Structure to design on (707 residues):
């Protein structure tokens, strides 16, 4: 009986391979509306970006991005379902339609954007790889790390970036590869390695839990570019636009000085930019196939980019991250929204 | 010692000589067992020295300097164990994403399951009512977990996690794998070439790959072959992978039992005019399965522990919920305490299984 089933399964699977998989424009939005919630793939164990808290409620920058998309589509930020995914599963889950959008600190790269069949949208966090070292070593620059023992996570681009960096600068290094982030930190604090390398945002978190955080410094060199962005499937441009502008709306709101607290007052604003953005004067919502109030709903229920940043990874959180590259372009950062008109 | 006298009834003097204190009692035992040869003496001293070195720091770490019900800041001020990580996160560790307001439901389901398991330990209850109790119990558990009827809020399976998920994957995995394994073992012994070769291929294929690869297949590759929009529940996919995997191992164990049955038993059954199914049901399997209780339980125990591998496909079983807690900066670095807690949970479950198997062996007098 099992065998018969298996044979059938093999036949079906073979048939599937040869069937063209194509998504029609608008298909995802219709499907999402029909089921009544957005399914968002998140990390699950990355503090500040996607992690359940003690009560089992999802918290993080990526999580709030997912909520913003739900607010844009349904006018209700709670109509979202989070699926925790591993690094290996994340792209498959998107390709197979298990999730509608991936907000899982995925770095946008050329091959992922093209060959993997994904479309990345507006970056919601600009990250980069750096080195954490004990102050006692007296290092000022990552270029002085010649011959160092470096703790690193396996399997991600982190290890490759570090190898590239040491080779490019004609330096020797001894990688110490450890599977889990928590164990990696423990090993480093135990003095097993001279340095710990990872994305700067994660290093900040690691440093925060050191027995004595002031004994450690993050070296100034950022050795890689890690633009972390939400991603959707190829072939559904309407859905891509919605996700893109849900993220951009949070940035635009910060540019316009609209926060979750003052958004109701801002409805009365005479500024045509604000009126267009909040849907007081109509057009934007219709163009995206959404409610005219979609941006209002995002800001009211989730907040602008600055608020979300401060709440999840900012100076008042254990991560204590500065805005840096993630500040608005007017403050010397890279966050820049096209006009909402 | 010997001359205890009473005023009322003086005991007569006896010539009975008690053995010297160095031969009996505590000292005697120590002498006979710990210092009976020179190498035993050396070993005893070495162990005592190790205990003297290890025990005080361990006790100090685990009990004296430890924190039990504090927040994480209080833990940073001590060198001892931070057990606080467990009470502070116990809800998430045990129930994962299950809505907090509804968490009595998975709790009740787990209690029900454990109660059924305990009742089933006793062979006196192995009658029809128990089978009905199990069926009823499973339905009630399903209703409790899923909700959607009887005024219970529906809770999707993607929100299940923690202990109920671990127990569910194990109990359903083991109960489904066992009969499947028996069928496969019989199939492998079959005289019909088609059935025999199919079973051999199945068993060898499944045994030839690690469980991790099967789980990856179920989680990563299988969904790609389904049409877009159609997804099969992630837990179900993992559950099926676990069942298929365990069944192959059970099959080989049962085959060992079948081969241990003397040929005369088969011939006796034939001469009684029993057909194949009667022979198996009445003569062969009862003996064969009894012989293989110890290896079967070994397979089941290791299958139970293997369910923790579902962490790699991001199912929040009790191991994953604990790990997830550890990635919170507040609790990062207390992995020793968290993993010790997990070890205790796993040990209780596995110990339950192995004592049950010993009890069963004793009662069946194999």
């Amino acid at each position: 009986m099992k065998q018969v089933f298996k044979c059938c399964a093999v036949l079906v699977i073979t048939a599937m391979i040869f069937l063209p998989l194509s998504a029609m424009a608008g298909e995802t939005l219709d499907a999402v509306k029909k089921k009544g919630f957005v399914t968002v793939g998140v990390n699950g164990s990355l503090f500040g970006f996607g992690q359940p808290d003690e009560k089992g409620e999802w918290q993080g920058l990526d999580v709030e991005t997912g909520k913003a998309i739900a607010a844009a589509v349904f006018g209700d930020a709670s109509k979202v379902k989070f699926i925790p995914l591993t690094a290996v599963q994340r792209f498959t889950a998107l390709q197979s339609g298990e999730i509608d959008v991936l907000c899982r600190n995925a770095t946008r790269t050329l091959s992922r954007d093209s060959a993997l069949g994904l479309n990345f949208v507006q970056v919601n966090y600009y990250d980069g790889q750096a080195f954490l070292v004990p102050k006692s070593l007296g290092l000022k620059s990552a270029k002085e790390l010649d011959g160092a023992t470096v703790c690193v996570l396996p399997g991600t681009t982190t290890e490759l970036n570090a190898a590239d960096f040491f080779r490019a600068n004609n330096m020797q290094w001894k990688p110490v590869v450890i599977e889990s982030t928590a164990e990696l930190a423990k090993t480093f604090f135990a003095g097993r390695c001279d340095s710990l390398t990872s994305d700067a945002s994660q290093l900040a978190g690691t440093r925060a839990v050191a027995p004595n955080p002031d004994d450690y410094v993050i070296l100034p060199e950022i050795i890689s570019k890690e633009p972390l962005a939400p991603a959707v499937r190829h072939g559904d441009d309407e859905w891509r636009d919605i996700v893109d502008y849900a993220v951009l709306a949070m940035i635009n709101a910060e540019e316009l000085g609209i926060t979750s607290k003052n958004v109701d007052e801002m409805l009365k604003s005479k500024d045509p930019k604000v009126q267009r953005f909040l849907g007081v004067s109509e057009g934007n919502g219709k163009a995206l196939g959404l409610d005219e109030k979609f941006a209002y709903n995002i800001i009211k229920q989730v907040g602008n980019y600055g608020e979300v940043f401060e709440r999840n990874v900012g100076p008042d959180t254990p991560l204590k991250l500065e805005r840096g590259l993630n500040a608005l372009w007017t403050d010397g950062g890279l966050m820049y929204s096209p006009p909402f008109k | 010692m010997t001359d205890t006298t009473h005023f009322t009834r003086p005991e007569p003097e006896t010539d009975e000589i008690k053995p010297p204190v160095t031969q009996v009692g505590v000292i005697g035992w120590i002498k006979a067992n710990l210092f009976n040869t020179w190498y035993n003496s050396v070993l005893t001293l070495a162990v005592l020295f190790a205990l003297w070195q290890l025990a005080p720091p361990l006790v100090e770490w685990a009990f004296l300097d430890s924190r039990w019900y504090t927040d994480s800041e209080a833990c940073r001020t001590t060198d001892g164990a931070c057990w606080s990580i467990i009470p502070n996160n116990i809800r998430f560790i045990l129930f994962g994403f299950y809505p907090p307001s509804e968490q009595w439901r998975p709790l009740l389901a787990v209690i029900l399951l454990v109660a059924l398991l305990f009742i089933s330990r006793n062979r006196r209850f192995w009658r029809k009512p128990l089978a009905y109790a199990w069926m009823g119990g499973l339905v009630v558990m399903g209703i409790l977990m899923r909700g959607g009827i009887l005024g219970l809020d529906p809770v999707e399976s993607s929100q299940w996690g923690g202990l109920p998920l671990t127990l569910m994957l194990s109990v359903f995995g083991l109960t489904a794998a066992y009969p499947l394994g028996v069928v496969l073992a019989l199939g492998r012994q079959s005289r019909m070439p088609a059935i025999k070769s199919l079973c051999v291929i199945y068993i060898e294929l499944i045994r030839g790959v690690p469980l991790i690869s099967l789980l990856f297949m179920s989680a990563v590759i299988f969904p790609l072959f389904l049409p877009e929009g159609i997804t099969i529940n992630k837990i179900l996919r993992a559950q099926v992978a676990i069942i298929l995997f365990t069944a192959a191992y059970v099959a080989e164990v049962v085959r060992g039992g079948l081969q241990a049955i003397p040929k005369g038993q088969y011939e006796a059954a034939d001469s009684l005019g029993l057909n194949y199914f009667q022979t198996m049901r009445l003569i062969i399997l009862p003996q064969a399965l009894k012989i293989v209780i110890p290896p079967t339980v070994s397979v089941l125990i290791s299958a139970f522990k293997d369910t923790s591998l579902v962490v790699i496909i991001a199912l929040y079983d009790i191991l994953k919920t604990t790990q997830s807690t550890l990635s919170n900066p507040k609790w990062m670095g207390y992995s020793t305490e968290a993993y010790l807690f997990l070890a205790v949970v796993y040990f209780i479950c596995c110990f339950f299984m192995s004592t049950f198997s010993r009890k069963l062996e004793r009662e069946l007098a194999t």
In short: The longest strand of chain A covers residues 129-134. The CA atoms of residues 72 and 294 of chain A lie 4 Å apart.
